[in-house]
Amino acid sequence: MRYPEPLIAPMRAELSQNGVIEARTPEQVEQLLAPGSGTVMMVVNSVCGCAAGKARPGILMALKHSVAPKTSATVFAGADVEAVQRVRELLPEFAPSSPSVALFKDGKPVFMLHRHQIESQQAPQIAAMLTQAFDQYCQ
Q1: What structural domains does the chain harbor?
Q2: N or C: where does the chain have the smaller number of CB atoms within 10 Å of the terminal CB?
Q3: How far apart are CA 89 and CA 98, in angstroms?
Q4: Is 133 exposed, middle or buried (0-12, 13-18, 19+ CB in 10 A)?
Q5: Is 50 noted as a catalytic residue in this protein?
């Protein structure tokens, strides 16, 4: 069963109101992560507390960094079920995780931040891990 949209709308908006593109279908995921797409940060958003208090704030801090992905996008676990599944299919070497943040370069995964890494950190540390990945892969 999918989460009711009125429940998750504010959680979606936290990212989308800050320039993060919502990918709600597998086709939108494919388009965003196509070969030649450059660097794309793909967030698997979630209703959990670590998404609210750590992941989303850390992501928003990281996006203020001087180096950032060409595109930032998100899918919502428990709502965009097929889109999340497609993202996970594109990350075969990584266990499913939500929330999580993957960085793709020309459609290939180059960095992954798992839930267990998010749970054990605060937003500024998450932002630091992401900006380090941005510096490495988005130059």
Answers
A1: 5-137 (3.40.30.10)
A2: N
A3: 14
A4: buried
A5: yes
